[in-house]
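Chapter review: from sequence to fold.
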Amino acid sequence: MKKTKGLFTVILMLCQVVIFAQARVITGTIKDSKTNETLPGVTVLVEGTTTATTTDVKGAYSISVEGTGKKLIFSSVGYTLQTVLADKDVIDVSFVASTIMLKETVITAVGISREKKSLGYASQEVKGEAVEGAREMNVVNSLEGKVAGLNITSSS
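The token string follows.
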């Protein structure tokens, strides 16, 4: 009889461990707080893990979270980082635009980025106003003639 009770207790404890280790799927939508438009490409990360996803074209996401007490970290360029407790099955987030300016970087030939002052050669800069004033449908075409040595070839 004692062996049966002991076995039953062990089985009960194992079932409890399995129940607490199950993953939940959390879904939601991410929108801009000012325009109320959905934001695609926002990164959603479970804090302390490597589990992450990004929002789709409609600003929706779905991520699996194991255990309780976890937090979701939402990040996107141009918006402030947000951390939310993952205690619900549906979490919608409104992003606030960030006022912090990004540092100036220069992209070199192979895609290696450097600070402008660390370069040993001359580099050219194109301001946003110059691209806006070009009135081209394609942003790449508006760079034509603005940078020395830049050849733009359109493909059909």
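Two observations follow directly from the output. Strands lie at 23-32, 43-46, 52-54, 60-66, 71-75, 82-85, 93-95, 106-107, 113-114. The CA atoms of residues 103 and 115 lie 9 Å apart.
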